[in-house]
Design a protein that fits this description.
The structure holds two protein chains of two kinds. Chain A is built from six helices and two strands, in the order E-H-H-H-H-H-H-E. By secondary structure, chain A is mainly alpha-helical. The longest helix of chain A is centred in the N-terminal third of the chain and has 33 residues. Chain B is an all-alpha fold. The chains are: A mainly alpha, B mainly alpha.
Amino acid sequence: MEITVRSLWTMIHGMGFGALYLMACSGALVELHRRYSSHSQAPVTARDETFLRVYFAAMAALAWLAVLTGAYLVYPWYRAAPPADAASLAAFPQRLLLSSPSTSAWHSIGMEWKEHVAWVVPICITMAATVAFQYGRSFKHHPQLRNAVLGFVWISLFAAGIAGFFGAMLNKNAPVEGGRTIHLVKGARP
Amino acid sequence: MSDGIPSASAAREARPNGAGAAAVLAAGIGSLLIACFAILADQSASIKSLMNFYKPTGPLSGVTTCAVVLWLASWAGLHASWRNRNLAMARVSAIAFILLLLGLLLTFPPAADLF
């Protein structure tokens, strides 16, 4: 069992930071919906407040790590130009996708959308984290502010979902491969 | 409240919503800026070349860097003006959501290609 360095980083970017962000969104939405609603009878404790702040800060860190590793590590491998005498396009995912009409839209729509829409996510969640730090428990007394943060977190989930879906499909159709091979487990002989 | 000193709870309740409103509106602006810079880089060869901050990443590096810097600048500006004020949050939120949704829509390539 082995994996290439590029494949490992693609996995860390998508399944590590990206997928963790998507999962964390559900927790943030439930917490904001239930505990910080002005209709909620239960008081918000200092512990709840700290939890929300740390949770949002962790989500913001995940979102920034996802876009930064995506844009500055994985994307350069994805868009690398092949040399003129390249015998195969397997190591050049963008060119591989564009080489066939049946796959070109994965780049022209999928990657073109993903590479930009993904940046909406850290913007939305950094705002949510900052507002959580500034207001904390007083969200209950600012229902419109809480609703705005809630809406932005919902939309960040949608944007992260688009990026995640196209990331998975792009990697299925033209995986980012190459670099040093890491041997994970030596298999048994057939 | 005791001895004329407001309790922590009352102080929180009284906190103006301006800082929050500034963050929300700036996030809407930032989202739209991503789409605007992406469209500009796509439509103009000279802007595309200007946006090439980091060659391996290409114009995406400049598009996102410019949008993030302007988002932070707009946030800082709005925060400085609004932090001690109470604003009509419903109106600010509505504008922020329109900007955010426009940003989302305009990052979709078939919509961006209309320009």
